[in-house]
Amino acid sequence: MLGAFCGMLMYLAVDNAKECRKRNSDISLVFGISIPVMIFIICGFNHSIADAFYMFSAGTFPEDIPYILTVAAGNAAGGIMIPLIKKITPI
């Protein structure tokens, strides 16, 4: 679950950046990226790349591969969830 929430927030940050670049809005770009990232950090959601780096640095990486793969699947599911909802629901 924590990986999926991370994926959703990272999707929001990237989508906000893409929309702000279209409108050429610098202030919205800064806040549109930094607020989802701050929420991700404060809530302690799991990011597969960051977790892999920490585990590799601690020397526990080989036995933590199933955990990293599970978090990566959650990140992917969360990143796909919002575009699917946007596609399904008419706005």
Provide an overview of this structure.
This protein has 91 residues and is mainly α. The chain contains 4 helices and no strands. The protein is globular, with a radius of gyration of 15 Å. It starts with a helix and ends with a helix. The mean pLDDT is 89.
Task: Kindly list the characteristics that best describe this protein.
single chain, about 90 residues, mainly alpha, 4 helices, globular
Rg, Cα atoms, Å: 15 Å
Bin the strand percentage.
under 5%
Shape: globular
Structural class: mainly alpha
Mean pLDDT: 89
The span between the termini is: 27 Å
Counting DSSP E segments of at least 2 residues, the number of strands comes to 0
Q: What is the count of helical runs?
A: 4
Write a brief caption for the model.
With 91 residues, this protein is mainly alpha-helical. Helices cover 82% and strands 0% of the residues. Helix 3 runs antiparallel to helix 4.
List the helices and strands and how they pair.
Blueprint: H1 2-23, H2 26-43, H3 48-58, H4 65-88
Helix pairs in contact: 1-2, 1-4, 3-4
